[in-house]
């Protein structure tokens, strides 16, 4: 009898612990469909709600040729308003549109960080901002290595991420800065 009670007590404790752990679990999608939709993402948001998805990771590009232009800003404005009204939390992954964008000039890193700040100020409901995408992939960050084989991307990305972190936290200390989104 004591053994059975001990097993039941352990099982009950495990179930209680699991329910507490799952209480903070959110499920979402990584999809730009809502942002790109002509209806401002109304149908997309409705589908997310029906599927009980609670957050959406969207991408926002930075073009160094137009460093202060938020692409598709009108669509983004409408989508974020619809998502917010429906209780969908939006996370923005902001990255350059070209692999050499952050290494082309001495000012490109500063320009990119200013852009991150611009987006954070334009969309104060976005509290999670991913900085760059897969800096370990030449598709997203170049050059990867020097001619002697030294890794160039890691140090450059680390410096840029640190600068971005400080700048975004200065805008709003509650922003979660997400970095080092690596490819396997």
Architecture overview:
With 184 residues, this protein is an alpha/beta fold. It has helices spanning 2-23, 33-36, 42-50, 73-85, 108-122, 153-171; strands at 28-30, 55-62, 89-96, 128-131, 176-178. The chain has a 5-stranded parallel β-sheet with strand order 1-2-3-4-5. Helix 5 (108-122) runs parallel beside helix 6. The model has no long low-confidence stretch (mean pLDDT 87).
Features:
6 helices, alpha/beta, 14% strand, single chain, 184 residues, 5-stranded parallel β-sheet, globular, 5 strands
Order of helices and strands: HEHHEHEHEHE
Based on secondary structure, the structural category is alpha/beta
First-last Cα distance:
51 Å
Kindly report the average pLDDT value: 87
Give the overall silhouette. globular
What amount of the residues lies in strands?
5-15%
Computed over alpha carbons, the radius of gyration is 21 Å
Uncertain parts: none
Q: Helix amount, in percent?
A: 40-55%
Strand order of the largest sheet: 1-2-3-4-5
Total strand count, please? Answer: 5
What is the number of helical segments per DSSP (H or I, 4+ residues)?
6
Quick gist of this model?
Helices cover 45% and strands 14% of the residues.
Draw up the topology in text.
Blueprint: H1 2-23, E1 28-30, H2 33-36, H3 42-50, E2 55-62, H4 73-85, E3 89-96, H5 108-122, E4 128-131, H6 153-171, E5 176-178
Parallel strand pairs: 1-2, 2-3, 3-4, 4-5
Helix pairs in contact: 5-6
């Amino acid at each position: 009898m004591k053994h059975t009670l001990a097993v039941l007590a352990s099982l009950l404790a495990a179930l209680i612990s699991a329910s507490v752990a799952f209480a903070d679990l959110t499920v979402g999608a990584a999809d730009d469909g809502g942002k790109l939709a002509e209806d401002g993402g109304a149908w997309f948001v409705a589908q997310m709600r029906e599927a009980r998805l609670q957050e959406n990771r969207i991408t926002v590009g930075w073009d160094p040729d137009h460093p202060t232009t938020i692409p598709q800003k009108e669509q983004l404005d409408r989508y974020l308003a619809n998502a917010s009204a429906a209780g969908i939390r939006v996370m923005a992954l902001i990255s350059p549109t070209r692999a050499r964008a952050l290494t082309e000039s001495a000012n490109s890193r500063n320009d990119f960080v200013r852009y991150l700040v611009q987006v954070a100020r334009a969309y104060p409901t976005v509290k999670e901002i991913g900085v760059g995408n897969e800096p370990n992939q030449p598709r997203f960050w170049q050059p990867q290595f020097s001619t002697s084989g030294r890794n160039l991307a890691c140090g450059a990305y680390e410096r840029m991420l640190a600068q971005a972190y400080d700048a975004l936290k200065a805008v709003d200390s509650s922003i979660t800065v997400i970095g080092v989104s690596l490819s396997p």
